[in-house]
Design goal:
hydrolase; serine-type peptidase activity; Peptidase_S9_cat; Hydrolase_4; eight-stranded mixed β-sheet; 36% helix
Length: 222
Amino acid sequence: MPEVMFAGPDGRLEGRYHHSKQPNAPTALVLHPHPLHGGTMNNRVVHALYERYRAMGFSTLRFNFRGVGKSQGRYDGGIGEISDATAALDFLQAVNPQASMLWVAGYSFGAYVGMQVLMRRPEMGGFVSIAAPASHYDFGFLAPCPCSGLILHGEADELVPEPSVRKLVDKLNTQKGIKIDYRTMPGAGHVFTPEQTEKVADATQDHVMGVLNRARMSMAAD
């Protein structure tokens, strides 16, 4: 898991990057929870998603937002963090110019940033949003949402009530060509236990492999 430093809009950003040995491998960017509430790229869920994408053959990057770990700069209320994420995508795309697909996955605050990035990068092939803070941020910018994806939420989330996320999912599913794979986890709060984290990774793999297999079948049929 080599450490990487790459240029961000407010200084250098620290990350961990795995380069797939497969030619034209898909790429994935994994985004961590809120920097002011202990969120880092070493968060349990972020690390699990990173490892699972890596196991699926992706070139995968997780990194610290500005002001976290060795990343330069300071917290910018979400605006600068969106720019950090697009800089991370620039890095990923520069070292994977022939990537077959581009994914973004985020947990909590990282899910919000990831979905903001979707709107700025129309080439995105899919997304994974875990514990999306739908009751804290306005997700109205997803109009229209550029691609389908997985949204997973704990049914007992004490910070983001599940109905607020379901409302977002229902709204996205009315959009033409968009299908949100919405999964809830009984008994799970906003912070996932190690056992629940493994289930989050399993659900992510199930969704991502389903998308990749459908894409391969479509290409084979052409």
